[in-house]
TrEMBL record:
Organism expressing this protein natively: Acorus calamus
Family: Belongs to the peptidase S10 family.
SUPFAM superfamilies in alphabetical order: alpha/beta-Hydrolases
Entry keyword set: Carboxypeptidase, Hydrolase, Protease
InterPro entries per record: AB_hydrolase_fold, Peptidase_S10
Annotated protein name in UniProt: Serine carboxypeptidase II-3
GO cellular component assignments: vacuole
Gene: CXP:2-3
Gene Ontology BP annotations: proteolysis
Amino acid sequence: MEADKIDALLGQPKGVDFDQYGGYVTVDPNYGRALFYYFVESPHNSSDKPLVLWLNGAANVIFLESPIGVGFSYSNTSSDYKLNGDERTAEDSYTFLINWLERFPHYKTREFFQAGESYTGHCATARRDNSPAGTNARPP
């Protein structure tokens, strides 16, 4: 968690009142697939706030770039890019969330919501079906 903490961003005013994190979470170590995220904790009582996974770009919010090949998310195996699709994107997003929660375990018991825009609404359904939070269960 602390390894992903961002002290300041270029152009960001000094002394912001929130913690921010960014980095890569591996979703397939065999092929070297990793998704990039940017996470901002709520500046007020973050321990009482739910967690929102914003797909494609108030509460604690994780911005996840998916599928691989979009933005900073990548694979070390070039043939992976030809295999992108809704199912792979949903699987990678689910694996990302599980692995991300290992870095930020204090979010495992929070309410969880997912949101997105454009075509992500289609993929979010597959993600919800895979998501423990989508079945009223808590991520491990």
